[in-house]
Amino acid sequence: MEIIFEINRRFLDEARLVYPGDDERLRRLSLIDETDARYVRMANLATVGSHSVNGVAALHTKLLQKTVMKDFYELFPEKFHNITNGVTPRRWILLSNPRMSQIITDAIGDGWICNPQDTIRRIEKFVDDVEFKNAWRKAKFYNKQELAGLIKKRIGINVNPESMFDIQVKRIHEYKRQHLNVLHVITQYNALKNNPKLDVPDRTVIFGGKAAPGYFMAKLIIKLINSVADVVNNDPDIAGRLKVIFFPDFNVKNGQRIYPAADLSEQISTAGKEASGTGNMKFSMNGALTIGTLDGANVEIREEVQPENFFLFGLTVDEVLELKTRRYNPMEYYENNSKLREAIDLISSGFFSRGDKNLFKPLVDSLLYQDEYCVLADFQAYIECQQKVNEIFLDQDQWNRMSILNVARMGKFSSDRSISEYAQKIWKVNAVRAIKERE
Predict the structure, then answer these.
(1) What confidence tens digit (pLDDT) does each residue in 307-328 have?
(2) % of the chain residues with pLDDT over 70
(3) 143: left (phi over 0), alpha (psi -120 to 50) or beta
(4) Considering the entire predicted model, what is its pTM?
(5) If 0-12 CB within 10 Å is exposed, 13-18 middle and 19+ buried, where does residue 214 land?
(6) Which class would CATH give 89-414?
(7) Burial of residue 30 (number of CB atoms within 10 Å: 0-12, 13-18, 19+)
(8) Would you list the domain boundaries of the chain?
């Protein structure tokens, strides 16, 4: 601690020269929080001790500069960089999706494997090629059949590979809003109960992910997903038109089976809360279409694939801040939206918990009286966007075309590009020269 105190003293002495008399700013910059226990501010210490601070998506970097690290950005603007995350196409396309990989290679050669940013876009010229699109559709269907078989083996439930595979796999957290997805599932369930012949595609909604051991609310969300699944999957009135699956033990190995089988990728976190995301990249690289908010790397994915090939909904970062400034009252949304009210009331009534009205009360109360992550505020926009998803999925030719374009335009999100940017901007390493010197 003596060393940290000395670092802080020297740093604040330098900062006073830049901001003389601005004691409030110096208090915010200090490496030590001087209130109560005088704890170390690790982010401040890391910023002072590092030669570079980078966000992992353009939006994330902007938020660091404007909010969390604003004072440090103003003091050390040269330290701050953006390097958007990437994932390796060797694992997340070539290894996990060999059928689609072969279709791409047959069309444009294998250069995309090691240089996707410059080459994979070439498959765009096949977007209206009937033979190419048929092969693409068959590869996706085969992947869905494989995942359906794995679901049957793991949890004993039959799912229809011809249904829309609507997938949300990621860490369970309130800001990632798996419970918003559940509210949509319940809304769909209510609609089908009222009209079993409703003209919407059959849908298999697949969740997966782990909760932190002490995160009560995340565990309650997992319980809610499984409780809703028990009711929906066993209701003869639905007759398989809607299935809900919680895939056990989600990890990298299982991810290699799940991402290639997805039709729809759920990236629905509250705007401003997700640093970047990499699952969103893995889904899009495997031909899934994204329904999502302008959060994390979603912003850049949408820019690359173009807005017409991305299902956008929800409040922006600025709109979330404005809503909170106006003293957001989630109860108003509950009272003024009949579909939302019906879904929440079903949960509260014990319908999904064998009559136990208290089981999900902490979750319902959190939504109605706090709703830190604006689930109720974004509900109607999410429902309307899901209706657009339904309409386009019924036109499989259009859906297939959008799927191809998503893959074609995801080259930017290769980890090769990310590592190259780190080498150039932060490590100041000539990667090509370093490789040659090793050889």
Answers:
(1) 999 999 999 999 999 999 999 9
(2) 98
(3) alpha
(4) 0.95
(5) exposed
(6) alpha beta
(7) middle
(8) 2-49, 89-414
